[in-house]
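User: Run a structure prediction on this.
Assistant: Running it now.
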Amino acid sequence: MPKLREALAEAGFREVQTYVQSGNVVLSSGAKPETVARKCERTIAERFGLEIPVIVRTRYELARVVERNPLRDVADDPKRYQVTFLDGKLGPEVVRKLEEVAAPSERFVVDGREVYAWTPAGVARSKLWALLAGRSLGVTATARNWTTVTTLLELASGS
C-alpha cells in the first residue's frame, strides 16, 4: 500500500491515504469521479502492470451510503454487514437472481449503485454473497464490510 500511495501522489492526487491491504484509497482531487477512476486505473496499470477496475465515491456519496444504512435494524455485526459498490445500476434480472439465492435469514437492499447485504451466518457459504462477490452482476463491483465503510468515511472527513 505504501507504493500505491506513492504512485497516486506522483499522478497528482493530494492527501492520498490507504486503509488496510485491500485497495481502499482516500484521496483529494478536483476531477470528476469517473476521471479519478480512469486515472487511478491507468496509474495502477503503468506502475504495477495490473488491470484493476476502480470504483470511486465522493466523500458526500460515501456519507449518503452511511446515512441511508437501510438494514440498521437487523445488521448488528459490522463484519457481516457488507456494502457492494457498483459502477452502474443492477438490471432487474440480476436483482431477481439475488432474491432467489438469498437465504431466509439474509437481507439485502439494492439502492442505486450500492447493495447493502446482511449475512448473519457469514459469507463463507452464502449464495447471496457468492453472487455479489462474483463477476455475474453485469457491472463492476467491489464490496466492503460496514467497519471499512465507516472508517473510510472518517478518513475522507478528516476525522
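The chain has six helices and six strands.
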